[in-house]
Fold:
Amino acid sequence: MSREYRGVWVYIERRGGEIVESSLEVLGKARELSDKYGDSVVGVLLGSSGLEKLAETVIQHGADKIYLVEDPILSEYSTIPYSEALARLITMFKPNILLYPATRNGRDLAGRISAKLSLGLSANTVWLDVTNDGILLAGVPGFGGNIMAVTKCLSKPQMATVRPGAFVKLSPDPNRRGSIEKIDVGELPKPRVNIIESVKIEVEDISKAEAIVIAGMGVRDNVELAKKLAEKLGWAFGATRPLSDEGLVPRDIFIGATGKTVRPKIALIVGVSGAAHFISGVAGAEKIISINIDPEAPIHTYSDYSVVGDAYKILPKILEKVG
Structure:
């Protein structure tokens, strides 16, 4: 591997004074990759000021070094100043690999950097590996999740966005030590859009749920039945993309190749056929229980326990039992 490009970088996304959880998931995978071919892990934090405490958290979760860029313009995410700051860092230090969480902001930033610096980008990856000489291999779902395409970037740094929930963050090690460097990247361009007001909407992150009820098109006419069961059990509630596309559930809770990935201890899946693009989002579940009226539905193959029956009749009886 060329010594000119070194380090596995992770863009550490933050919202206010908190690190976005998926950044730490990506960081854990970066630690594994760097250990495999003998490199260091670098976290990149951008903000207005007071980032040292967040930097310590990043070190505890696997980073060897943190680059901080502080500027009042970077207090809130904005494409133009953030992409300019990161582009200058890349030009200064030449990382071998740069990973981003595939959040809305992470995807926006990665795409802008790719265009700005004419770099390759593997998007929405769910699998990562690296060769002994530092070549990044990225698994990207294709054709609705029916295949996994393994991609390589032909430019440096090699970049990828990583789907939230695809990997597990490392447990923090309070004894871990690393270095923190504040980098001056010069004057940054001002955002073209001014933030008048920020409104925070709390949305449950179903990717972290330990138990979940998932509804599919088989209960399209009464999605509330499945949702009510989830509430009674105290479980999270998710759904398939077709329900989201029809506006029956929010887009934040659909599961599958182009949506959320969940790793619960138990998943009750109701009225879902079990197409490959959906299964890719629940493959990490420890136990799957399914209800589907079609005995030939693929979901039965992936289930630990399956019930062939009418969910509209079965769910009310379960609700009676759970009170």
